[in-house]
Amino acid sequence: MFSKKLVSIALVFAGATAIAAAQNDVVLRATQQRFGGNTPE
Amino acid sequence: MTVVTESAPSFTTTNLNDSGLVTIFSNLAAKYPKGEYWCCGGYNVMGPAQGEQWMAAPFTPGADHTVTRIEVAVGYSQGKTNGVVLSLNRDSNGVPGKALKTWNASGLPRFGACCTVVVKSDASGIPVSAGTQYWVVLSTNSHEKDTVDGWNFNDTNQVDLATVATYPGNSNQWEAFQTSQGVAFAVKGK
């Protein structure tokens, strides 16, 4: 289930990177970033 | 949280003159110049001041080749230095091992645009063997301590899981894992 994945995601808006709240899970594998939109949670 | 918005960047494409090269591996959507990779999502590649994270992706040549060119979909997000270190590495027990060749790339396209790729070449070439796994690695150097780049997701396979590796991970070493979102790159040569 997606909500079980822990993915810390940085949102990028025109060069300003904002760290979004991570999802809940056990293991942080690697952080991702997305441009111009919110991230699924 | 303060959010600064800006209109979406326009498409930029790369006209790559790679005629005559053999594609050893590619997950770039070459037939779709407006969608060679997913513009707007990727794994972070960051220097230590941002919480160090290097990323790598494997490929296995189907025949013996000599790598002369690597293309990577990577964009710059923030930090004093716009750059990334690209390398072709041997495999070491399922994670990246010794680098066979290392390049410094600068002036990356802004993350969030498509479809420029970062290209590095080696005229003499790096021999690779059929059936042996190698890794393309994106990392940072001492000038890129606060750099944040994004290695774009590929958009050619939304069915099979892809392998990627991250460093330093949770145990200060390379860790490979499976993901539904592999990263976009191509390896070419002769």
SSE order of chain A in H/E notation? EEE
Shape of chain A, please? elongated
Low-confidence stretches of chain B: 1-15
CATH topology of chain B: Jelly Rolls
- Unreliable residue runs of chain A: 1-26, 37-41
SSE series of chain B:
EEEEEEEEEEEEE
Using DSSP, what is the number of strands of chain B?
A: 13
Question: Rg of chain B, please?
Answer: 16 Å
Oligomeric state, counting identical vs distinct chains: heterodimer
Count, helices of chain A: 0
Provide an overview of this structure.
The complex is a heterodimer of chains A (41) and B (190). By secondary structure, chain A is an all-beta fold. Chain A has a domain of 25 residues. In chain A, 0% of the residues lie in helices and 32% in strands. Chain A is built from no helices and three strands. A three-stranded mixed beta sheet of chain A has the order 2-1-3, with no helix packed on it. Chain B is mainly beta and 190 residues long. Chain B has one domain: Jelly Rolls, CATH 2.60.120. In chain B, the strands form three sheets. In chain B, strands 7-6-9-3-11-12 form a six-stranded antiparallel beta sheet, with no helix packed on it. Chain B has a four-stranded antiparallel beta sheet with strand order 1-13-4-8, with no helix packed on it. Chain B is globular and about 40 Å long. The N terminus of chain B is likely disordered. Chains A and B meet through strand 1, strand 2 and strand 3 of A and strand 2 and strand 12 of B.
What would a concise description of this structure say?
The complex is a heterodimer of chains A (41) and B (190). Chain A has 41 residues and is mostly beta strands. Chain A has strands at residues 9-13, 16-19, 32-35.
Give a topology summary:
The complex is a heterodimer of chains A (41) and B (190).
Chain A: E1 9-13, E2 16-19, E3 32-35
Parallel strand pairs in A: 1-3
Antiparallel strand pairs in A: 1-2
Chain B: E1 22-26, E2 41-46, E3 54-59, E4 65-72, E5 74-78, E6 83-92, E7 95-106, E8 118-128, E9 134-139, E10 148-152, E11 162-167, E12 175-179, E13 185-189
Antiparallel strand pairs in B: 1-13, 2-10, 3-9, 3-11, 4-8, 4-13, 5-10, 6-7, 6-9, 11-12
